[in-house]
């Protein structure tokens, strides 16, 4: 889970976010009891060309990592499936 260092900006265009996005995020990970533990910080420095950049944590995660809780994992699986369909990505390899 990423928590912004400043209040969320809500819905905004990419151009608006470029000027108002939080400068950093705190990274938390959950254990099997669903307790969250801070493990790092993510800092934003500059916007990069994102053509071809794909982030899909449902398909790309460590094999021993199981996102918790289960209801959130199932919601993310559906959301990322819809995202793949929306960008005409090839189906996942089983």
Write the layout of secondary structure elements.
Elements: E1 2-4, H1 14-20, E2 24-30, E3 36-43, H2 70-86
Antiparallel strand pairs: 1-2, 2-3
SSE-based structural type: alpha+beta
Q: How do the helices and strands follow one another from N- to C-terminus?
A: EHEEH
Helix content: 25-40%
Number of helices: 2
Mean of residue pLDDT?
78
Region (Disordered): 1-26
Written description of the protein model:
- Residues 1-26 are annotated as: Disordered.
- Helices cover 26% and strands 19% of the residues.
- The protein is α+β, with helices and mostly antiparallel strands.
- It folds into 2 domains: 1-47, no CATH class; 49-89, no CATH class.
- Strand 2 (24-30) and strand 3 (36-43) form a beta hairpin.
- The radius of gyration is 15 Å and the shape is globular.
- The model has no long low-confidence stretch (mean pLDDT 78).
Brief descriptors of the model:
94 residues; 2 helices; 19% strand
Summarize the structure.
The protein has 94 residues and is an alpha+beta fold.
């Amino acid at each position: 889970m990423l928590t912004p260092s400043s209040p969320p900006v809500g819905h905004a265009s990419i151009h608006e976010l470029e000027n108002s996005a939080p400068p950093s995020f705190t990274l938390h990970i959950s254990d099997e009891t669903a307790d969250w533990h801070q493990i790092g910080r993510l800092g934003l420095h500059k916007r990069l060309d994102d053509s071809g950049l794909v982030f899909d944590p449902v398909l790309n995660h460590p094999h021993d990592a199981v996102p918790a809780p289960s209801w959130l994992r199932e919601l993310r699986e559906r959301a990322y499936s819809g995202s793949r369909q929306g960008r005409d990505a090839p189906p996942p390899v089983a």
